[in-house]
Amino acid sequence: MAYGSSRQMRRYVNKVFKLEERLANMTDGRTDPTVPLAPILFTWFWALARRTPSTEQVGDLLADPRWRKRVGLEPKDGGSPDTAGRALDMLREEEVQELALQAFFDARRAKLLKDDGPYGLRCLLVDLNELFKSEKRHCPACQVRQKKVKRDGEEKTVKEYYHQAVALVWASGEIPWPIGWELLRPGEGELTAAQRLLERLLPRLRKSADLVMGDGLYCCRPFFKLVHDSGLKAFAISSGQTEMDEEMELLMHSESPRTTPGKVALWEMESEAWSQDLECKLRVLHYERRYAAKSWRHERQTLRAMTSAPVDVMPAGQGWKVGRCRWQIENGTFNILTRDYGLTHNYRHSPMAIEMLLVLRSLAQCLTQAYFRFAAGRSRDAPRFARWFELILKEDWVRYLDAASTAGSGRVELRLSG
Q1: CA-closest candidate to residue 17, choices 91, 101, 83, 126
Q2: Residue 412 contacts by C-beta under 8 Å, 6 or more apart in sequence?
Q3: Tens place of pLDDT for every residue, the chain, 418 residues?
Q4: Is 31 helix (H, G, I), strand (E, B) or coil?
Q5: Phi and psi torsions of 8, nearest 5°
Q6: Which residue, among 261, 255, 209, 216, has the nearest Cα to 231 in the 3D structure?
Q7: Sign for the pseudo-dihedral over CA of 309, 314, 320, 321
Q8: I need a surface site. Which of 9, 46, 50, 153 has the fewest CB within 10 A?
Q9: Residue 373, CB-side half-sphere exposure with 13 Å CA sphere
């Protein structure tokens, strides 16, 4: 096809990101496995790339003789949904985390994630994502809460079990890219998990980013200090409960704002309230929208933010755009992952399996977008992404599997794709 094919996409993913090679090199913690780890992980990734909604369907793909030939599985090798799920439980956390980070660096080297973002800065965003809700407990690490449901005409209170994870996302450019994930442990708060995530990733991202952003929960000393100590600048939406907020309220009552070219009123000040702990001053930026906005856009009227970035790094006029970009991540990346790449049925609820599924889901989304832009960008008559997805990852995928019977041996196919 003029705008790509399933075969070409697999080659692109392996040439640019070496994904299957890295998956094949991961440590297998199983004892005397009947199915090699590499074909299982390949199956998980390509099933998620095709938005397979259930772990049973992932097992069906693993049992498909055409796919088995593509990944080099012999007829004597086993394969089932349970086998595919158990393999995820036995992976090593540090290898899974490294897989996600190296994919990000590959995207940077391939210039898919450019430095000239819409905010003038290389921005990272840290935020919480909720997933895998169920009314049955699947593992000791499940969090629990109560919810009200209507059944048989009656309202009942039932327990709901779920998992949450904090993500660090590249927020500059057209493709928001999840770089890493950190699961919340039972009874743990978002900030605690976010601190582990940032301590692990920021030292290695120092040369790739300028600014780390968070919502009002991150408007606290530990977040600003951690980012500052990592050699980066921090930006957080105001919680409304800090000493800087009190100072800003006094400023707004005593001074008139200046208006930015985008018709946004701006008050700006520099505060020393946390300078003893942070070893730097924080800038406080308060914005009020003075232009009419469409109601369906749900655009906020005011925004107050704190940042350690000096004026020469982030001019005050950019703070309005930077502060609002987190909604692009929440309404874009996380919603797409939940809606399009979510598993309606997932019985593998061990923390290790969930972390691997998070990494594979986000890679499936990002690498599909990367190939779409690479393949469709060469054709004037390329369809929109939704139609392209149906043509390439639905219809052409079937032809790709059917062609396995006329291809060489599965092991030769595996070597070429890697």
Answers
A1: 101
A2: none
A3: 578 999 999 999 999 999 999 999 999 998 888 899 999 999 999 999 999 888 788 888 998 999 999 999 887 887 777 888 889 999 999 999 999 999 999 999 999 988 766 567 888 999 988 877 778 777 777 888 898 888 888 898 999 888 889 999 998 878 889 999 999 988 889 999 999 999 999 999 999 999 999 999 999 999 999 999 999 999 999 999 999 999 999 999 999 999 887 788 999 999 999 999 999 999 999 999 888 877 766 677 888 999 999 988 888 878 877 776 666 666 667 777 777 766 666 666 788 988 999 999 999 999 999 999 988 876 778 889 999 999 999 999 999 999 987 755 444 344 333 3
A4: coil
A5: -65, -35
A6: 209
A7: negative
A8: 153
A9: 12
What are residue 180's phi and psi, to 5 degrees?
Answer: -160, 160
- Write the secondary structure of 316-334 as one string of H (helix), E (strand) and C (coil): HHHHHHHHHHHHHHHHHHH
| Bridge partners (DSSP) listed for residue 305 | 237, 285
- Give the β-pairing of 177-183 and 264-271: unpaired
Distance in angstroms (rounded) separating the CA atoms of residues 194 and 364: 23
φ, ψ of residue 201 in degrees (nearest 5): -100, -35
**Cβ neighbours around 268 below 10 Å, total:** 18
**8 A C-beta contact, residue 183 and residue 165:** yes
Q: Where are the domains of the chain?
A: 6-94+348-417, 230-312
Q: How far apart are CA 220 and CA 334, in angstroms?
A: 24
Phi-psi region of 337 (alpha: psi -120 to 50; beta: other; left: phi over 0): alpha
What single-letter amino acid sits at 383? Answer: P
Report whether 178 contacts 168 (CB < 8 A).
yes
Report the chain's C-alpha Rg in angstroms: 24
3-state SS, residue 254: helix
Torsion of CA 164, 165, 166, 169, to 10 degrees: -120
Task: Tell me the whole-structure pTM to 2 decimals.
Answer: 0.88
Q: How far apart are CA 343 and CA 59, in angstroms?
A: 13
Unique residue bearing structure tokens 């499936």: 364
